[in-house]
Amino acid sequence: MKPISLTNTEQNDSDKQSQARLLERGTLPEHIAIIMDGNGRWAKSKGNMRSYGHKAGVESVRDITEVCAQLGVKYLTLYAFSTENWSRPKLEVNALMRLLARSLRKEAENLNENNIRLETIGQIDRFPKRCKQELTEAIELTKDNDRLNLCLALSYSGRWDITEAVKKLAHRVQDGEIEPEDINDDMISSHLSTAEIPDPDLIIRTSGEYRISNFLLWQLAYSELYITETYWPDFRRDELYKAIHSFQERERRFGKLSKKEQKKQAGLHVQELTT
Ligand code: FPP
Predict the structure, then answer these.
(1) Which residues does the record give as Mg(2+) binding sites (predicted)?
(2) SS3 assignment, position 78
């Protein structure tokens, strides 16, 4: 298979070994979702403007996308612009829009060559014309790719997503297509913007904030959470390996008993029946 390279640097041996170790160690998350935070503080700590931090953040986006494709992670969702981000100073919003449009223009071919599919969730209609155009073109160009699904959450919020799903379901009830009693978890999931994407296995938040910030509220019900103090522009592949390593150490219980406890309880049950 063609080696993945978004960053145009050859993968060194030590990195290959780090990836091989992770793959040997255990199961990888199929879907990683990231709240990219700390661009502003990173820039400030270097005596620079916030937009300098966003620019550096794009380099992390490239590196993390590349490494997810190399490892075989199937879905990567990045919280790139929240509904609440529209309230930031106009200058910063405009700089982010320009950066997004420019990055898409620069990277679309590269994503395509590396068999990566670009998708978005959120209110894309609110974006300036140039951004929408770059997004539409990149989505169209990469639509048949299947190595990694890179989903950008843009003008996205979890509450917006749930509200839209509720509206769609209410219309279906009104049109007599379904009964209110038919509505269940799966039906709600299938009316969200992420209907085609499995729920995230691992949610990462950078910059040490212990919040979900209106990200994938419904979808993260059973996701493992990993929070690091590292600011997003410094979050590169070695940091991702740490997050995946931590994920592999956890036992996902989905509300049930742990495997150890299940065995113990089964033993007690047999004992009860035989005494
Ligand atoms: C959070 O840092 C980051 C954002 C609101 C924007 C993230 C955008 C990028 C990394 C660049 C564009 C993305 C793509 C996909 C090309 P912050 O500004 O909230 O930092 P702070 O909490 O330190 O103020």
Answers:
(1) 37, 224
(2) strand
